[in-house]
Amino acid sequence: MLTLHVADASPENAVLVDGALVAAVGPYEELAAAHEDARLRRWPGILTPGLLNPYGPELLEQTYHPDPREADTYGTEPITGERAREIFRADPARLGASARRGVQRLLAHGTVAVAGELRGRAAQDAVRRAGLAVGQRPPNLPGPPSLAPTPLVLLPRLAAGGPARFAVFDVPDRAALVRRGPATCVATVVGGRLVYRAR
User: Fold this and answer.
1) CA-to-CA distance for 116 and 120, rounded, in angstroms?
2) Does pTM surpass 0.90?
3) Whole-number Å distance between alpha carbons of 185 and 3
4) N or C: more exposed end of the chain, with fewer CB within 10 A?
């Protein structure tokens, strides 16, 4: 089934999705007229190719993402450094669940690709199952590992025949996305599937 995604602040960049691939990219009015049978998903903000987070290993193998049921013990924010290492040493089985929760946090920030060499099977499996692309790490990393790294790394433009992988941010333009950051994400699509939607 065809799905047409359009964001209110970027109607010229509507995306028609067929399965896991982009069928067409163009102005919303043209795509809607040519594909009246397509299911419509309308979003606030701008539709982008999504983000590459260059800190894959740091966020998925060296950071503990607590389960919400552990909030009394660990809080709700990611845990790094020696404390994370202690948690993983005490119970190596936590690596898999933490990596899966880390991937969910990345998706909620419009991340559709990660970079950096993932060495552990738990993180590799979490990335593969989510359908995240694995890209080249920039030669100079700008700062500390973060779900919202600065500067943001946008992927190349979407094109017909390419993978249906993109994110929508509730901002009026790219300059506002840079200012306000990827926590403004309202939807992330990977492999043609809506894998994150803000509540």
Assistant:
1) 12
2) yes
3) 19
4) C
